[in-house]
Amino acid sequence: MGLSETVNDYFDIQEHGSSIRTEILAGVTTFLTMSYIVIVNPSVLTDQPGIPGADGIAISGMAPGEVQSMLAVVTIIAAATATFIMAIYANRPFAQAPGLGLNAFFAFTVVGALGIPWQTALAAVVVEGIIFIILTAVGAREYIIRAFPEPVKFAVGTGIGLFLTIIGLQAMGIVVDDSATLITLGSVASDPVAFLSVLGLFITLALYARGIPGSIIIGIVLTTLGGWALTTFGPFTPDAGLVAGSTAVSYDITPLAGAFISGLGDVEAFSFALIIFTFFFVDFFDTAGTLVGVGQAGDFLDDTGNFPDIDRPLMADAIGTTVGGMLGTSTVTTYIESASGVKEGGSTGLTALTIATLFVGSLLLVPLAAAIPIYASHIALVVIGIVMLQNVIDIEWDDITHTIPAGMTILVMPFTYSIAYGIAAGIVSYPIVKLAAGEVSDVRIGHWALAAAFVVYFFVRTSGILTGQI
């Protein structure tokens, strides 16, 4: 039996009405659309001194550029590992990598707002990854996801999109703090960073609209080159912030790999349990929402909005999260960009295997990650945030019992700067409005249980217990 026959048989390619060529081209397409994560994830997770809100991982004696390059290597390994498992075990054409939104939660909320050491945050990622492996193995994750209220399922992707968008606009200087209105438009015409960010954003959106593969990474690189040219040949000095502060590169990930072990000893049991509790809800339902969103785009959901055999891609996610946390990055999840490969005909694990292989090859791009300024990398967050808004069309807006929980999910996320708060608001409101509308028969015991759990979550996150114990 030849190689092509072996590949066809293993991935059931012909049974899916596809071909090896189609699957490989689909994998290349997906990789190009999501390759920006090699640059963006390190940018989000790295502590950026002097940039408000840019909290994250900082290593003594190392410049942010060095930390970013190490995180780029870790990002690639975690993405390749999870996507390889998706290919071989789940036989799905989905790509996985450290998730946007989850990395922002890690850096801005856990490390930044709560002041938890990044090593301890990584330990929490590893522990929740192990818990997810166990829950997936016994089928509990699939059961809980099926208990997810339908309007919240379809609203999560849009809410995350708005959350990512405001993070990106803030880093680009387009949205700034305001004492009277909380946020307002930045000085776009006079701030070179904001002006170049706007220009780069519209170039990227134009490329994306033209359907050019790799449009996001092209836009990021063009914006970076524009900042370099204006600083080197134009009227601006390096102090203007148009170029990265450091281009030092390190492939040595030993300061990150295994750092979670020291994090296990840096906090007492009760506090660490509360951190796990927080990560559990954010990661669990963010991953579920993203996977459902990908299922929407790829037409993999059944008539009730459920994802058949979801336990296998969930296992790839769980293992990828565990490996990523051990190496030094935030939670791994399925990427909505996988839909681009699906639209090109990808329908089996060979697409994912192609993506995993390309991720390994992208180790050559690590020096680029250190040279990309934060405003340029965050263009990706705005573009993807906009694209994720399209999931809103699947919500039954003419049904008020769907409108309220969906609307709460979508609006609370960006306004509270928290994915978890948005999901919690939607889940808590669902059984309440169903009961008020006299449609209590639509509410299952699982809905009430999730709502009660999220009431506890709200109490833990807003009562000061978590902050006071650390």
From TrEMBL:
Transmembrane segments: 24-45, 70-90, 97-116, 122-140, 152-172, 192-209, 216-236, 242-265, 272-294, 314-336, 348-366, 372-389, 410-433, 445-466
Domain of life: Archaea
Alphabetically ordered keywords of this record: Cell membrane, Membrane, Transmembrane, Transmembrane helix, Transport
GO CC annotations, alphabetized: plasma membrane
One Gene Ontology term of the molecular function aspect: purine nucleobase transmembrane transporter activity
Subcellular localization, as worded in the UniProt entry: Cell membrane
Mode of membrane association: Multi-pass membrane protein
PANTHER family: XANTHINE/URACIL PERMEASE C887.17-RELATED, XANTHINE_URACIL PERMEASE C887.17-RELATED
The family this protein is said to belong to: Belongs to the nucleobase:cation symporter-2 (NCS2) (TC 2.A.40) family. Azg-like subfamily.
Protein name: Xanthine/uracil permease family transport protein
